[in-house]
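Handover notes (outgoing to incoming on-call)

Open items:
1. Peroxisome assembly protein 12: sequence verified, structure written out, both below. Nothing else pending on this one.
2. Nothing else urgent.
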Amino acid sequence: MAAKGAHITQNIETRPSIFEVVAADSLNATFYPALKRVANFLASIKPATFGPLLRYYDEVFLVFNWAVQSYYLRYKGGSLSEVFYGLTRTSLRTNRFDQNGQRWSLALLVIAPYLYRKLEAKITQWKEDYENGRVISPEKVRLTQIVPYLKACFECVRLVHYVSYLAGAVPTHSPVLRALNLSLTYQQEEEQSWTFQELLSGRVEPAKLLSSALLRSLELSAFFLQFIEWWQNEANMGDLAKLPTPDAPPGDLNGEKYRGKCPLCLQRWEIATAVSVSGYVYCYRCIVAHLQKESKCPVTGYPASIGDLIRVFEGDDD
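Peroxisome assembly protein 12 structure tokens:
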């Protein structure tokens, strides 16, 4: 009887642990910065080829994330990170994940983060303009002051949900899922769609084999991206600092051509300012005016923005 009771308890246990749901949230937040590091690496190797990928990274990631998440929500019942941890979404009312829940989940997983990142970039720009004495509207000033408080309030609400879920007081760990009236539960075990014997005998359809391989590679990539995020963590930077210092990159012809002068006005620098992505030094006014029109280094053509500028202090500076 005790063995049967234990067996029944195992079957009806559908509530994931707090560690599983937090890990799924953490993995989902890893995709954007980890893939951006890959885009930065590609753009640094071949700026002409992969420069547009970095410049329009938000839009590229939006399309990619939409395609991936819509597939997993429709056919697997959860986001990529949730399926990776064996979780699926279900309605608190009907115990099903219908099309309406899928549409709202897709909007909050894909579109809402994209819009928030755009808003955050605008707020950062408005804040810099305000601090530099540029004229901006009072509405924008108030927005730069309000949004950080709203973000802090949301994080507090999410923390309360985590604690309440851990205590068993609420059925879902996330305020977003609660607003959608959804919760997370364990996925049902799926039977293997094909065996290696069927594969060797040629009885497996190529489309089914390709689809399975793509899904497995995508889920494996999710783990790889999480590893990249861990590798870049500040806790591991101390070990990286022990590596031998590589040789400095060689100069080029343009470096000799523009030695001691701004490549734009061809005069000696006034408030010498370097573009971090290329290393070339310009007058502050020259390079700011250029980057406001074209988001690239004038000499190398590397993608750049005002945030990539670094003040250079010469020996005679006060």
